[in-house]
Design brief:
The structure is a homodimer of 339-residue chains.
Chain A lengths: L1 E3 L5 E3 L9 E4 L1 H14 L15 H9 L4 E4 L2 H9 L5 E4 L7 H4 L5 E5 L2 H10 L3 E5 L14 H10 L3 E7 L10 H22 L3 E4 L13 E2 L9 H4 L9 E10 L4 E3 L18 E6 L4 E5 L8 E4 L4 H5 L4 E6 L2 E7 L6
Parallel strand pairs in A: 3-16, 4-5, 5-6, 6-7, 7-8, 8-9, 9-10
Antiparallel strand pairs in A: 1-2, 3-11, 11-12, 11-15, 12-14, 13-14, 16-17
Helix pairs in contact in A: 6-7
Chain lengths: 339, 339
């Protein structure tokens, strides 16, 4: 990234040229995370979930690491992936009642179904393939395991290809104690395997960043957060490094506190406050974070704010700025936002 | 809003044509809120804050109600308001270290300053007018009251016009008990008036939706949330009605719960879970809300999700859909997002 100077010269842009708050990405950490996961779960053993990064440039990096099948949470994500030429095998791991935009895609499209209504929506929308979504313990989408076989039969009768089952152990992926996490995962997958025995098909799709190495039942793992990480996942001691943060500028100093320009509209807050190394967070407002730094900071200083939850943080931002030290070497749009 | 049918006819669009989650706006409630506030604080007594709605079409409605001066929280909001022809008198009620984009605007621009550094930034950026931002009890931006006079002198020495003071009693606006809210506001404004005596200028800018009728010291009130409201402000029993909500579709039913497609990426979560009338919220995930409805709901039903905090909710969405019953009568872009 270059900026044009008044005299016609160009110079490399730095983080000091960015309008804050700005999402920064460490491409070395990103590539290391992608490589570590591709080693553990090569090729089709991983179906990277794009919902965490919402960025086709990052997805292309995952594709280059050998993963050709992707997972999405929204129709907009499916459309963006197809438009970016990453539509070899796209799974919408979510239920929809209007699948017409999916049916119109130039891509291999599979959609999760857990009811007669969602099966009918797939047929109406012109989607040819489905996974039977099974509730494996998280009270969210998914049919009861005992109903999966009947739903698969119904889908096949209506001309849909049933590629297998999906069941997300979302109540397990964030459990801090590894033994308990493994136990919760194991119990969930017992339910999913039972459903799969009734449904058939080549795919058993499950898992996430927190269970990527203990979910040995699934044929493919739907991990997404591992590429960027956040402070919640960092607590699990996984072999993935924090690869992104929000750059903020110190704009004001008070008595025992400082204020930077990164607030509620730049951070997912459902997992609580973000973290600033060497500082205690007091509170966040719409466009501010008030914090007590251990060492003095000055007005104009740039600081790193580490979000507690990657997904809803990224969804607020228009782009990732790739940095090497203070140099901004590229900018990638967060091009899969919205619905 | 019309949609084109296959046979060439057009029909009025309804909420059932929208991709959910979608931000809906009740224009009657919006206009009633704007009218009620304009009656209480006519013309320049109100400086509407655009940060809650981030929508120039709503700002134009506030302008039509007699308010020609506006308040912004970000540079992008200032740019968007100027571009929309609403730049008669724009205040950036926030500190910036690079004011060059502000100096380039075709608008009357005033910026808040609370330090030598932010005064210098205004000068460097070509901004001609400032307000001295005073800390009146909320540990965020603002200089100590005793320093306001010296900062005003410094600003004037550097050629800036000092229009007065600003001091946001953000710790008071959300206090539920009215007497305590008034007391906190009164104490804050005593500090601000003291600072104003040293600073001079015609503007004493303060307040918010929660103190719009008890802050009788400020020359202008910076209220924004009143146009849309949220469940947190609803608890204060103010004469403003909820004018927006997130439309969601029930996509799955479980044993004692239902799931709709409105999650963490469609809701500001810092004030806690949203509300669904006639239902108990269990939890929100990235793209889902799990809730226990009192009366049965069906897959495909549309429900209203009422956010707890308006500002970070709106910032996730691309547009407001204006509705009359189930009819979608217009769509307004949320065109002031980002920084």
């Amino acid at each position: 990234m270059f900026r044009h100077l008044a005299d016609g010269l160009i110079s490399m842009a730095t983080i000091h040229d960015l309008q804050t708050p700005a999402l920064l990405l460490d491409p070395q950490a990103l590539d290391a995370n992608i490589a570590a996961m591709a080693l553990a779960l090569p090729g089709e053993r991983l179906r990277p979930h794009v919902k965490a990064h919402k960025c086709t440039a990052i997805a292309a990096r995952q594709r280059a690491a050998g993963h050709s099948r992707f997972c999405c949470a929204t129709i907009r994500e499916m459309e963006g992936m197809a438009a970016a030429g990453l539509g070899e095998d796209l799974l919408l791991a979510n239920e929809v009642l209007d699948a017409s935009r999916l049916g119109a895609l130039d891509a291999r499209v599979t959609v999760a179904v857990d009811s007669e209504e969602t099966i009918n929506a797939a047929v109406r929308g012109g989607v040819g393939e489905v996974l039977i979504d099974v509730n494996v313990g998280l009270p969210r989408c998914g049919c009861p395991p005992a109903r999966a076989g009947a739903l698969a039969d119904a889908a096949r009768r209506k001309g849909l290809g049933v590629r297998g089952v999906m069941g997300y152990e979302g109540h397990a992926v964030g459990v801090a104690a590894r033994a308990e996490r493994e136990q919760a995962c194991s119990e969930s997958m017992a339910l999913l395997m039972k459903a799969h025995a009734e449904v058939g098909g080549e795919l058993i799709s499950a898992g996430g960043t927190g269970t990527y190495d203990c979910n040995t039942w699934a044929s493919e793992i739907q991990a997404g957060s591992y590429v960027l990480m956040d402070t919640a996942y960092a607590a699990l001691a996984l072999p993935f490094a924090q690869a992104f943060w929000v750059l903020a500028t110190v704009i004001s100093l008070g008595d025992g506190f400082a204020v930077a320009d990164c607030g509620l509209k730049a951070l997912g807050m459902d997992h609580g406050n973000p973290t600033i190394e060497g500082a205690r967070i007091w509170f966040c407002s719409d466009e501010h974070i008030t914090f007590a730094p251990e060492k003095p900071v000055a007005i104009g200083d740039h600081i790193r704010v580490l979000p507690a939850h990657v997904d809803p943080t990224v969804a607020y931002h228009e782009s990732f700025h790739l940095v090497a030290g203070d140099q901004v070497i590229d900018t990638w749009p967060v091009d899969l936002r919205g619905w």
